[in-house]
Amino acid sequence: MMDLNRRLFLGRAGLGFGSLALGSMLRGGESGVNGLVHFAPKAKSVIWLFMRGGVSHMESFDPKPMLNQLAGKSIGETRFKYVQDRDRLKKVRVVVVNDANGQQRNKLYPLQVGYKKYGQSGIEVSDWFPHIGGCIDDIAVIRSMWTTDDNHGAQVQFHSGRHMLDPRVPTIGAWVNWGLGTLNENLPQFIGMGPRYFDRSDGHYLGPAYDEVRLKIDPRNPLDYAKPEGDLTAEEQRLGFGLVNRLNRLSQGRYPNDARLEARIKSYELAYRMQTSVPGVVNFDAETEATKKLYGFDQNQTRSFGQQLLAARRFVERGVRFIQIMHGAGAAGAWDQHSNLKAKHSELAMQVDRPVAGLLKDLKSRGLLDETLVVFATEFGRTPGSQGANGRDHHPYGFSVWMAGGGIRGGVTHGTTDEIGFHTEEHPHYVTDVHATLLHQLGLEPERMEVPAHKRLEMDFGHVIKDILV
Amino acid sequence: MKHLLFIAVLGVGTFPASAVDYLRDIKPVLKARCYACHGALKQKAGLRVDSAANLRKGAKGEDVLAVGKPGESELLARLTAADADERMPPEGAPLKPAEIAAIREWIAAGAPVPANETAEADPRAHWAFQVPQPVKLPGDAGNVIDVLLEDARSGRGLKAQPIAERTIRLRRLYLDLIGLPPTRAQLADTRPWEVIVDELLKSPHHGERWGRHWMDIWRYTDWYGLGAQLRNSQKHIWHWRDWIVESLNADKGYDRMIQEMLAADELAPTDPNALRATGFLARNYYLFNRTTWLDATIEHTGKAFVGLTLNCAKCHDHKYDPLTHEDYYRFRAIFEPHQVRLDPMPGVTDFEKDGLPRVFDNHLDIKTHLHLRGDPKTPDTNRALEPGVPAVLASFAPPIKPVPLPVYAYAPAARDYVRNDHLAAAKAAVVAAQKELDEARKLAANAPKEKPKPKPKPTAPKPAPPFAVHDDFAKRNDQLWEVIGNGWKFEKGAAQQTTATRDAERLALRQKLPRDFELTCRYTHTGGSIYRSVTFRFDVSADRKYANYVYTSAHSPGPKLHVAYTRGGTSTYPPDGLVAQPIEIGKPYTLRLAVRDRLVNVWLNSKFQIAYQLPDRQTGGRLELSGFDATVAFDDIQIKSLPAAMKLAEAKNAVPEVKPTSSVEISEAKLAAAAAKVASLEAMFAAENARGDTVAFQKATQAAARAEALALKAAGEYELKAFAKDGKKVNAARTKIANGYKKLTEADQGKGSFTPLRAAKKALETPAHNEGQYPTVYPATSTGRRTALAQWITSPKNPLTARVAVNHVWVRHFGEPLVETVDDFGLRAKPPAQQLLLDHLAADFMANGWSFRRLHRLIVTSRTYQRRTTTAGADAKTLAADPNNHSYWRMNTRRMEAQVVRDSLLHLAGVLDPQLGGPSLNPGDAVRRRSLYFKHSRDQQDKLLKMFNDADHLQCYRRTESIVPQQALALSNSKLAIEMAGRIEERERGGEGEAAFVDRVFLLLLGRKPDAEEKGACLATLKELESVAKKAGKGNVAQRARRGLVHALLNHNDFVSVR
């Protein structure tokens, strides 16, 4: 252990990929499942679904019929004039000055979709998300989110809690990875799928060991370097790994107490196991047709997202802690409807609605929903006013996300925005409150998650949204 | 309850026996919450609270304590004030009740002063703020590093490990000094250690190796942005990388390096080699936000060179160091005037191809204001701050003197090579155009002589046979229509489409339409979702990838009538083909469509809507009626030939076609334009040369203006011919010609002006700017601020610079720094365990020309550097007393940096391309150059390097080091590792047996021979590998097995380790 210093392992059990073996080794062979859990957890895993580009809260989970009444009017000529008072707008910090987007949009734009009440709770969900609506009694909708970036840097902010103009800090997935041990020695504990925002790193000062491990839904090649990129048979590879292991163990005599050497031996063992286990998880042969259909495998529009969600369930079953799936490709993200909101939002909603509902139902029927926290989020909402003829602009002052499972109360809404969906009113929540709630359910205390030389700020920790907990 | 009790007791004025211990309960609270403003660093309101004695002294003679009477003590009043403006501390939460109670109790107990309590030390006395002093040693004492560390150890009875075996040491030395492992011959080199050291220090690869280290520290990044938009750093910033490598190879003094990086534009304004250094500043360029840009410049100038965290003073005074909020903005003022530009490189006139990124003082009079609370929206405009270095260390700061610049620097267009390059480029265009013309003429001459074709008559295609179709949809007519889809119903006198699809269900006319036709249709949108459009497609090709169409849409919002087209399967909805129309569901419409060649006229309910010209027509396709997201009822349709006499409205988007021109004519115009450009350049240079002589300049100006006008006109005339088919370009060409005439007139009237040559390219200050608005000549003086800063940093009186540099070199040889916080030598950095050594090396470094080569030599020739890394055989007492090796009783093991891993693979395989310098390369497997030449930015990073903790482009004062399975997978499965294993096997092939092969590659790859057990394991695996290869039917099984062995050794822990 003497060879180790803080820079190497940050004194933590969590070590990215398959940290259990390394972690327990570093703790002297103690076999603990939870690296750092501070109190009894409700949830074991997180499935983090992030819609890139900015989902309109008013046309998804926060109905604002007032917009239909006031359609075409300028905000300034209505009794909601106050929402644009300078003081109320000042929390936003602008990155791109004079950008064409991220502006005030004054002419109120009617709802582009209808709403229905769902479930026993009777919570209203827009007609673009009928299947998610069908699961509403398992969902807690938070209608009072706010953030401070009026551009797509808000995607980074939603994951890290820090604005684009601030330094990059670890994302929520990295913290979970850092804070928890893995439940499976053969798999990475932080997996990412789908299109990612421009900042490719999660670990930042925690190191690349805490970055997401990107997977593709391709059993032949799900992971970088997962199979030899050259003429090397499986037998040869097995012998090679065997020799490496033997020689490394032999050199332990030459270099006693060398923690790096120990760690490298373990990392090779894990690497070898992972090669075989990861492809199996993204191979769906063992799933029934009914299950596949539940996730929307039968439709072109839903298949791709559905496959990622089914893989997520399979990873959860195998003890992976954090599965981060983003939806909506493109530089800004596909949900960024500055124009054509109705056509594009309805199309994108169709791509995710059935698979997400399928995931919730599947987790529930397998008894996994209680210990799996599902988060459905986006970086900001969209303006109550129209942009151009048929779009809405970025809106950081109020938007909606939802959570389900993992000890979250179902069939509740929490917090409100005003009648035109502009500002948060009741129970406003900054993005890190979602992080705090999630960490709480995993049994972690945000305030105890800090590494030397990297002071975290009050706002980084957030506050647990207690009202939505069981 | 306890505290309440005390309050009650105090009320009667007796002193209870206090349970509070000032040193234990109070001092730490005051230290954490109050010292920053009331300690040694600062004494706000004249108050210090860093000792009980100071507390009792009060603030400027006013007591803050009423001894024995907490209720009357100002201290408690302020700590407990209800008004947040009154309450102390002003930031953060109030003190906790228990903390306040302890203070109350202590005052009540008479505020006893502990014996021997020391107040906070004067921050100016901080160890790192004292000029480092060398140690005086007798001449024959040996290597100073060994002497000082042995001294430190012997005092504690610690015993060092012996020197490592020579091949291990050689591998260590090669990897450290040149970043490449030794070859077999080099491992067998028996020359003295010092000779090899000197040879390696003079190798050009030494500069590459250490250049990459300094690129980490100085935050090298290639440019990145969004698409083609430059947002961060600069294009061609690799010139700075080459400067770093070359400077190290030339052993340029570190003091000079810093001066050039911060101020080469003032110190060596005509030396493009030195100007490359300012890439250090240009790298911080950020398009969107000047404050972000300067914040990065300030933070990393402070951290990299002097180990000061100036960034912590951006919003308020530094919490720990004697750096004030004002210091921060005075430091900013040093950089405030500077901007970035690309200077022209000889022989290149295209800045996309090459250019020299450099800084220059652009805004000499710009003011710097302090940002209140660090918020750029609240500058303190009451006063402008003078540029300056942090006051605490300003005693040796040189005065700032403005620097006059030579013409070469401020008017790049005046450089001979620039004019020559532009002229040469223009003349080369003439030659190329002449050649093109010759070829066009030859082609025209050789073309088979045809009789000049009678020109086709401009109008009237052959009269088409009359065409007429009518259907009132009373019943289904399968002869007339192909009915596609299941949703069609022929009811109530209409063809009804009852399922809303996206064009899947349609009526396709079986007859071919004539080119020119007229269509009238009555129909009703009956429902649907989203777009709810009714579409009339014509010219639909068999694969449906080509079509022209008109549709009405009841889309909400934004109902409309639209002319559109599909080409190659992609639909285009031209904005000038759109007419907003309140199309409603359930209301009948009559659409009339007249098409003549490319021209389309549309009427709705007899009202003319739009004339639109299609880009082209492919006739012979079908006519199709359909709904798009809509259900629809078609009531009646008539289609007939368009009468030739019928007049249609002209389309606004139509561009009159320019008469097609022969390639000879085009080439002639091109040549003329090229020649006019040469003339224009020559006239412009003549005018520039005439500056200073008013009369001659006026005359030359008019000549230049005239030449420029002619060149503009000629360019327009050429483009008009060359782009005859492109409406937009034709219009642009016409504008050019018109402008040419206008300028010509001005010149003829003596009112002309010419456009000076834009020879450099300034980086945009904000995205709202465009390059054209910047002058082509820059300020003729520079403020001298950055020169003064550089002189201050490199002054021998600066206590920080050399220490910080030596520490950076040390950590890269030993894996551990002498000062743990390599970028922070402020008050939080405790005196290092080996301060004598650090100070001596720093003093020696400065006294010897700031030579890195000398420092490296001193380090790697020490015994300390050459010791074994293992703890095996170590003295038990030493192991127990200094497990973390603070006294360097052994060498530390390190892992190769990412670049060394990759470079070593290539080098051992004999395929590393040793070429030095040049533009950055796209990462990838095929590249054979050293890894420091890869593009390295937010968006581009080599995958393999990333796995091995490549430098963070934003900040990397030290590399992190992780051990993760991805690294194992990369070395096991990457193409590079497998291929290089094969090549190493080929190179190491010999006639001897397996045992000798094992010895040889073990030594080559790991720096030592295997022991018996290791050898046995290798031989056994070789056998097994042969047998599995044989079983798998592979050829050359022996070689294949040896490749497998090499591959395994490349995955050995000791391959990526520096032992």
Describe the structure.
The complex is a heterodimer of chains A (470) and B (1059). Chain A has 470 residues and is α/β, with parallel strands linked by helices. Chain A contains 14 helices and 13 strands. Chain A has helices at residues 6-9, 19-26, 66-69, 86-89, 130-134, 154-160, 172-179, 234-254, 259-281, 289-294, 300-317, 341-365, 431-441, 458-461; strands at residues 45-51, 115-118, 123-126, 139-146, 190-193, 213-214, 322-327, 372-378, 381-387, 391-395, 399-404, 412-414, 429-430. In chain A, strands 1, 4, 5, 6, 7, 8, 11, 12 and 13 form a nine-stranded mixed β-sheet that branches. In chain A, helix 8 packs antiparallel against helix 9 and helix 11 (300-317) runs parallel beside helix 12. Residues 1-34 of chain A have low confidence and may be disordered. The model of chain B is unreliable at 1-16 (pLDDT under 50). By secondary structure, chain B is an alpha+beta fold. The interface between A and B is large, with 76 and 78 residues.
List the helices and strands and how they pair.
The complex is a heterodimer of chains A (470) and B (1059).
Chain A (H helix, E strand, L loop, with lengths): L5 H4 L9 H8 L18 E7 L14 H4 L16 H4 L25 E4 L4 E4 L3 H5 L4 E8 L7 H7 L11 H8 L10 E4 L19 E2 L19 H21 L4 H23 L7 H6 L5 H18 L4 E6 L13 H25 L6 E7 L2 E7 L3 E5 L3 E6 L7 E3 L14 E2 H11 L16 H4 L9
Parallel strand pairs in A: 1-7, 1-8, 4-12, 4-13, 5-6, 5-7
Antiparallel strand pairs in A: 2-3, 4-11, 8-11, 9-10
Chain B lengths: L1 H10 L10 H12 L18 H6 L16 H7 L16 H12 L35 H13 L9 H12 L6 H4 L5 H9 L2 H14 L6 E3 L2 E4 L5 H12 L4 H14 L4 H4 L3 H4 L7 H17 L18 H11 L2 E6 L12 E6 L41 E2 L2 H4 L5 H31 L21 E4 L9 E4 L3 E4 L2 E16 L7 E24 L6 E7 L6 E8 L2 E3 L5 E3 L7 E9 L2 E6 L2 E7 L8 E20 L21 H27 L4 H29 L4 H22 L12 E2 L18 E2 L2 H9 L7 H14 L20 H13 L4 H9 L2 H4 L9 H6 L12 E2 L2 H11 L34 H5 L17 H9 L1 H13 L6 H13 L5 H20 L5 H14 L2 H4 E2 L1
Antiparallel strand pairs in B: 1-2, 3-4, 3-19, 5-20, 6-18, 7-9, 8-9, 9-18, 10-11, 10-15, 10-18, 11-12, 12-13, 12-14, 15-16, 16-17, 21-22
